[in-house]
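@channel anyone free to eyeball this complex?
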Amino acid sequence: MLKVGIIGATGYAGGELVRLVSNHSELEISFLDSRSYASVEYSKIYPNFKNIVDNKCISINLEKDLDEIDVFFIALPHGLSQGLVKKILEKNKKVIDLSADFRLRDVDTYEEWYTVKHEAKELLVKAVYGLCEIYADRIREADLVANPGCYPTSVILPLYPLLKERLIDSDIIIVDAKSGVSGAGRSVKDANLFSQCNENLRAYGIGTHRHTPEIEQELSTAAGKRVMAQFTPHLAPMTRGILSTIYLTNNKKVKAREIRDTLEYYYKNQQFIRILEEGEYPQTKAVYGSNYCDIGFKMDERTNTIVVVSAIDNLVKGAAGQAVQNMNLMFGFDIDEGLKQPPVWP
Amino acid sequence: MLKVGIIGATGYAGGELVRLVSNHSELEISFLDSRSYASVEYSKIYPNFKNIVDNKCISINLEKDLDEIDVFFIALPHGLSQGLVKKILEKNKKVIDLSADFRLRDVDTYEEWYTVKHEAKELLVKAVYGLCEIYADRIREADLVANPGCYPTSVILPLYPLLKERLIDSDIIIVDAKSGVSGAGRSVKDANLFSQCNENLRAYGIGTHRHTPEIEQELSTAAGKRVMAQFTPHLAPMTRGILSTIYLTNNKKVKAREIRDTLEYYYKNQQFIRILEEGEYPQTKAVYGSNYCDIGFKMDERTNTIVVVSAIDNLVKGAAGQAVQNMNLMFGFDIDEGLKQPPVWP
Amino acid sequence: MLKVGIIGATGYAGGELVRLVSNHSELEISFLDSRSYASVEYSKIYPNFKNIVDNKCISINLEKDLDEIDVFFIALPHGLSQGLVKKILEKNKKVIDLSADFRLRDVDTYEEWYTVKHEAKELLVKAVYGLCEIYADRIREADLVANPGCYPTSVILPLYPLLKERLIDSDIIIVDAKSGVSGAGRSVKDANLFSQCNENLRAYGIGTHRHTPEIEQELSTAAGKRVMAQFTPHLAPMTRGILSTIYLTNNKKVKAREIRDTLEYYYKNQQFIRILEEGEYPQTKAVYGSNYCDIGFKMDERTNTIVVVSAIDNLVKGAAGQAVQNMNLMFGFDIDEGLKQPPVWP
Amino acid sequence: MLKVGIIGATGYAGGELVRLVSNHSELEISFLDSRSYASVEYSKIYPNFKNIVDNKCISINLEKDLDEIDVFFIALPHGLSQGLVKKILEKNKKVIDLSADFRLRDVDTYEEWYTVKHEAKELLVKAVYGLCEIYADRIREADLVANPGCYPTSVILPLYPLLKERLIDSDIIIVDAKSGVSGAGRSVKDANLFSQCNENLRAYGIGTHRHTPEIEQELSTAAGKRVMAQFTPHLAPMTRGILSTIYLTNNKKVKAREIRDTLEYYYKNQQFIRILEEGEYPQTKAVYGSNYCDIGFKMDERTNTIVVVSAIDNLVKGAAGQAVQNMNLMFGFDIDEGLKQPPVWP
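replying in thread with the prediction:
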């Protein structure tokens, strides 16, 4: 059994990691770290874990608590994991960082969009962007995996094959994404109150959301040239789920068949990617609580537009599930170990 | 007091008409027609109206029941109002039709998208498209008003001024619209069940929704040339509200100031249109239960895109509220009579 | 036009007061007080009021800002209104206090349940408990009205007539009440987050909720003897609404007819009370956004139990609506002025 | 691997069975029966199962399709399983029936409350009431298990020990239960529409719900005397979950300690029952998607009432999960096989 430490265990991504790790046959939780809840029983914060997880939260001391741990998950807000990662790597341990700190290869882009200085830039070259279906080979060798953001996961997975195969030749791609409220985390603010979010739908951070450069980095890599994303996120009145609707000009006159063949070819051995049939579109409920990414599309001949739609559970494939999938790759476990439960419907 | 007859009073648009008409100082409900609920007390179907509306539903006979009515609202599914409208106009009465039957000026387009024959094409020339803020003058003179669809209202109101003033010169406009479930009406089908819609978000009818030609008709009118809309509707887990996010290429390099000035100029005397300030975006809760249309936008310089966002209550500004506003114009009442209550928040 | 000042205008009850007052033909808002949002435009906090309410919040100074105001609403948390009320009454102004501070006639009970000292006990004799349908005569004469709590309103209205007429002779009455999340106010805490409340239902404060003595005070008054309430509140995943299900032992073997006759007799001229027919039970949606209280009941002969169910909108009849109704009584306006809009359905 | 047949696989309980069975290490789905969807791919009805369950629905013929199946689950509405069960037992196969048909030992009670004739009364003596934590020994030997109803499960589990140990001596017990909408099944009717259920809470079937005699049968068994339940179900605006709040007069002056000790003693080896600590109350989210039943209580000394609260997921512990747990008992598998995933939060 691998010993696992989760740093920042009391946010929603941390809670989801605990759910998945506690059900993983090769893992055992060593500690759950939380500065604000140190010495509180974890199941007092997340009552779903009563009698399942009996840890108390601790506030870890990386100088001494590191040795017996095999793998670390860090689920802290951006800017807080850099020093931790450094210490973990110095001890030759493996770490999956769910924050944004090691996702962007270009440090200037990071510092511009996140408006903080990067304190561990020398590690960026070691970091592998943990999009499992695309970078599995590199992830298997990695010590430091930068777990992708929720929105980027939902956007890059459907687009990567299309750009890579040059089926699309856009400089600008329009992404209209809708997220459940858990995507905003457990931060206690007016905008996340039930009475404010329920029966409400709104756009936010148009053109300025921090996931934009992450999306662009990967789409550009795929396309072999600079691609920009017009990214508009929305908050929808639901707890979980991201639905991304992506608009591509069909400037190379490809056929629906080519799109479908390409997606199916790229993902034919990827069990967590499901390509829907013609006329079917993804819905967030169909992936609820699971690590699936559903992808559908429509060739709108009239307007010469390809509309691609994807759905993920933002806390699973968009965070903790993908982190476990990365760890499975890093340690040679079955790719779906700990991730086998089907989506919950209804 | 004007005597009002509502035909098709038991759908959601019908119910909303009753709510607004019953609170209108110049109106009195004469009959509530419903084939399926004939002789049932209306407040048994809509318990909110207990002790407020004491009508029983009737199944009207237009040969005899017409004479004492001053104005008719028809809230039937498309295809059912054509014969009724003919009879009403023959008696020199005024009618606001909430169905799609008289919205499209081109009968072939109607028959193609709605896949039914139009049985009253000769009346199409008499019909005025009832978008109050744009066609007020013609509505004042009209006997037959075709009340706009919910999605089209949310799309045309923000775009009309921009196209009319040639600030945008697109042939194709991308519209990503999200609607509450009441937009699907009271039709009893699996897809509208609570357990299916709750915690779920999905796209549907991509590129094939029947509101597409209605949107295109009006945008083309504004632009003075053929404009197409790539229209993708979504179902969101809420009862009321439409949020439309519209993507325009800034191919004429206009400034934010010009967009703002144009919208403000067009709507400066239109109390139901609210232009939000820079950095503010519409949210459906801010218009809940009211006749407002909120409009915001963002110039995304990086991607050279103008993102326009609008919010309406689909049952009020998108249906019954706009119908009452049309009637206010037709009979010379204050434009906001019956529509004064502020939105309900939270 | 009466000049109105609202103290504590930025909580949910305050926001609802603004909604109702802004639509009241005899009232004009003079100021909206908020310590935390002083000098912020009110419509920045509540975007539904854009272009409707153009006030900026102020932090009032009661020494100087009092003179030109005709009536005050106070919507502060308990403990904060006592000094304000004193100053207002000294200036011979009328005040409706929505807090709990003047609801309990017995100061010891207040201090025990609210665990604060009462700083204005001498005013308790002047305070009238503002349950409009029961105490209208006294309210008309009052300068200080203590607006009832949301849960108590939903419990006392259906039970008062039954206890007064001695149809029930219980010492202990069981009240199982379910509230929407807006009842918890706008306080920003973990338990009120969307992701925590959505798809969740829970009991809280069993036997210890502060509304218990308020319920007992009024039920005891009605019964002419000490009556206790076993009061169990629940939080339901909705924004608005309270449904109270009340269990009474039919120890006097009354008939359904007597219950019905008594309720109908007491409330026959009370337009905001609706007694449902046999077999019909209240639902919160039927009173949404309105000042109605719906009451239904079932004689369960098998178990010798009378089950009484009531529904209100906690922010209207349970707070701001009843406050406006009280003010209508105090100033001789029509009882439904500002409260005429029908409930919003769906 | 045991071969499983699910009869009535397309209702919500059927769908949940498929979710759990597909993740059970000892089971393999042989067929999914559905009259209305025969020959439709199961994953077209439940898109969450795409690429997970590739069965097409069949309409089984019990004369020929029975032989190779090891165990049957029947998830049909009441009245439809009687003939099927007879045929299955004749072939010496084991069956878990999720309908109400074999739950009530007294056939007259069944026929009175369900208003249909029982066509297989001779089998009632063979049927074991499948409340796993209470009747495990008998279930292990059973060929026919009557899987308990959702509401009864939530009521009997917390009360059985208290009545059995004579801590309570009531003739009448008050049960106020709140259920998510999935409890009403997938039946397509107006009352289950999203727009009707969302932001709504209502009581229904007060004193007449068919789960009443089932509750009473088991409580009477426990108490060793006739016990009646005043049972009031409510519909809450959520998909899953039942919260039952139960009111008991403390007529034997027991202490909180005795209640707690008794519950803990009865359930100390029952991993799916969690007794919450003092001051903690169950919430439906803490059991979401899982087979847990959470139980808490409050001694309200003031009113001499014991308030017991329980929470289950109506589709898991209240239906499919308990059915799998029963099957685990019948075949000697680990009790939690297929039921290990922790509840989903948030």
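from a first look: Chain B has two domains: 2-125, 151-314.
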